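Is phosphoric acid mono(formamide)ester placement plausible here? Inputs below.
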Amino acid sequence: MENLLSLKTLTNDEIIYLVNRALELKKGAKPANLDACVANLFFEPSTRTHYSFIRAEQKLGLEVLDFNPSGSSLKKGETLNDTVKLFQSLGADVLVIRHEEDRYYEKLIDNINIPIINAGDGKGDHPTQSLLDIVTIYESFNRLEGLKCVIYGDLSHSRVANTNIDIFNKLGIKVETVSPPGFEYNESTTNDLSEAIIDADIVMGLRIQHERHSEHFTYTQEDYVTKFGLDENRLKLLKPECIIMHPAPVNRGWEMIDAAVDGPKSRIFQQMANGVYVRMAVLERSLVK
Ligand code: CP
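Reply from A.M.:
I modeled the complex. Tokens:
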């Protein structure tokens, strides 16, 4: 039984195996022959992760139970634990779960005997996002070691930052972090995006996560993008080979302007496409006996 709760518990070899398997599947390799049922339990909103899991499940020929929290017995007070046990009782062989609570899975793993794939937990981890980011970087540079990645924006509320900073460094990608004051990742986070991006190979923006803010967010759009976003002036500073990434959804005009999202350096929609193959690889890992 192979859970995927956090990438931080995987070795570099295990991470690279999943990256290579996603790349093989993208090139048309035959997926494993799986006769299984998957339940998608998205307790928090999602478009990319949810629907790329569904696409991956279709491509693997899996049976899919797709849970809709707004029309469910959660409204009658059913607990996360009981909802999860229900889907195991219905015959699910693996659970894909997104939940707003950090490390929600710790409460569940002793109560069920099928694997959990974490599709994002609060500010904790987003392992499949990190894998698809690595696949996308590898496709652009044919290597990971020695690259410089600037991750900028609302770092303190971001599970993507929390996973990527750790895993990228482990794989030899040098990460620098930049944020508005009060949104830092750690003491080495700076507030000067222009200086950080000049020699970057990858510039990765992060969404302003209003849903996790307890403090009042006071910036105007103009103020935010000019001080902390990829605006026209900062686009001109990037190296010719530099790529732009963002896990999305993007607050267009805040974290970056349209010319960054839709321009030739953007890999944002390639990231989304790669999500399908990464999720196929991860489902195979959890289901192959
Ligand atoms: N990147 C990401 O997790 O997007 P969704 O919230 O739409 O799944």
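Short version: DSSP finds ten helices and eight strands in the chain.
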